[in-house]
Amino acid sequence: MSKSERLFELLTLLRSKRYAVTANHLAEVMEVSERTIYRDIQSLINSGVPIQGEAGVGYLLKSGAHLPPLMFTDKEMMALELGMRMVRAWSDEELANGSKSASAKILSVLPDKLKQQVESFPLLVPDYHTQSDTAKRGQMLRHATDNKLKVEISYTAESGVQTKRLLQPLGQIFWGKVWTLVAWCELRDSYRNFRLDRIEKLTILDEGFTTEENKSLKHYISMYAPDE
Description:
By secondary structure, the chain is α+β, with helices and mostly antiparallel strands. Strands 6-5-4-3-7 form a 5-stranded antiparallel β-sheet. A two-stranded antiparallel ribbon has the order 1-2. A hairpin with a 3-residue loop joins strand 1 and strand 2. The two termini are about 45 Å apart.
């Protein structure tokens, strides 16, 4: 991470807080030393950012130092934050980290009143991320889908029957409890879906595939949602 990127991240963190935060806390969040935080705080102050506080006590942006608020209504902001928390709880590690970063950026430009409402949000979604095997498989499949690479899986169906499949991964669907992979199965020569928590082994192959008008996630959804 370059110094400019680090300074922007530090400023974003300070904007997201309504109270003074210590250099130690900032260092832990940003995974740098406290000495680096002290230097970066001074760099921001020298560039005109109105930061108040001192080493050992904490730092806080002065009143009026925030960017103009985004054009979100209260309900829109609540919906966004709820969605972010769901992503952190139910997606893979990369998307969970992206959601956490996005939330911090949004909070950094909100006025204090709305920021306080978000912090006391009455709908609870435990937003800690557990890097389970299912989440890891979801991340791998997302990459395979983005890069249009075939995958091979060992799969246990609900009946207990175990099979190996060569698949063209088209996308994933979250049903509120489980994720399923929508794919073109080369064994069946048709669409199939597979629960990620029933995939025993997953290998991304070097062989690519192409999507078509009649072979894509959009086309699948427009037709039906079969169970494997």
